Amino acid sequence: MIFDNHNRPITYLRLAVTDRCNLRCFYCMPEEGIKYLPKAQLLTYEEMERLVRVLAQLGVSKIRITGGEPFVRNGLMGFLEKLAHTDGITDWHITTNGVLTAPQVPDLVRLGVGSVNLSLDTMDRERFRQITRRDELPAVQHTLDALLAHNVPVKLNAVVMEGKNIADIPLLAELTREHPIEVRFIEEMPFNGEGSHYPVLNWTHRRILDELRTLYPDIAKLPDPANSTSYTYQVPGHAGTIGIIAAFSRTFCGTCNRIRLTAQGTLKTCLYDSGVLDIRALLRSGATDDELKAAFLKAFAHRPKNGFEAEQHRSPVTESMSTIGG
């Protein structure tokens, strides 16, 4: 196991396999989209496989595949097949918007996916179209049904957006009554290609909890898993749980065990940094595995204490979440 300079273990890699997406979510990118990277500037699957092996040798045991939308990249299932059999990787997960995912669910189960994070900000088709700028809610609901039918652990991620989906908080929370899923409400972050949408973030984790308490006065706090980014709650009698993620308030930094690799091979030791190491350049310059390990360890030894410190050492946030892997 490896530790950073604040004695936090690093065991979890979020790996973006693409910066492309088939939705245009309000909180993730401008309506016109972003300028996607040429294929040659993205890590190849072979490069990603090598980096996963190297990081596993350093102590990383958990992988989450992100994007963009992972399923828009050709050949993903073949990559997941190899990932699932990598020595040292004990569990792997995937985050998806669900538009293309339903047909892949049986193979995800066969490969032993640990869980699926499904992005779903609203249960209303028109609000979905307004938020994502695409009319794809039926496809996402089909994916949710398929995941539940195959008993895949599901975390349903909903970004709480003022003036966009506040009416969906009770609708989404109510899904936990009958279904053994975790519905997670997330503070909106400024990673949308434009910067912050609001002068002040009104829908903080505290306000989200207050709203839930008005709906469910007996909602109870549950113990949070180690290194969790989410505060976990349950309504008595409900099959599932409710989580609140203080992504903008950054209250969970003290136990952060995760690092990120963007699709172009940039290492981020904090979501809010601007990238601390160009891994792609090292790979393509002929670096050995030992040299890669040394570069990773040097970066981990200079990790910011929290997201606020990381943000102080960069220009204002303007990139899209689609480019950094979330």
From TrEMBL:
- Radical SAM core domain spans which residues? 5-226
Q: Which reaction does it catalyse?
A: GTP + AH2 + S-adenosyl-L-methionine = (8S)-3',8-cyclo-7,8-dihydroguanosine 5'-triphosphate + 5'-deoxyadenosine + L-methionine + A + H(+)
KW GTP-binding (keyword) present: yes
Q: Which domain of life is it from?
A: Bacteria
Q: Has UniProt tagged this entry with the keyword Protein biosynthesis?
A: no
The protein's matches in Pfam families, at most eight in alphabetical order, are given as: Mob_synth_C, Radical_SAM
Q: Which cofactor does it need?
A: [4Fe-4S] cluster
Q: Which InterPro entries match?
A: Aldolase_TIM (IPR013785), Elp3/MiaA/NifB-like_rSAM (IPR006638), MoaA (IPR013483), MoaA-like (IPR040064), MoaA_NifB_PqqE_Fe-S-bd_CS (IPR000385), MoaA_twitch (IPR010505), MoCo_biosynth_MoaA/MoaC (IPR050105), rSAM (IPR007197)
Give the keywords, sorted.
Answer: 4Fe-4S, GTP-binding, Iron, Iron-sulfur, Lyase, Metal-binding, Molybdenum cofactor biosynthesis, Nucleotide-binding, S-adenosyl-L-methionine
Q: What class of enzyme is it?
A: lyase
- The EC number(s) given in the record are 4.1.99.22
Give the PANTHER family listed for this entry.
Answer: MOLYBDENUM COFACTOR BIOSYNTHESIS PROTEIN 1, MOLYBDOPTERIN COFACTOR SYNTHESIS PROTEIN A
What name does the UniProt record give this protein? GTP 3',8-cyclase
Species the sequence originates in: Nibrella viscosa
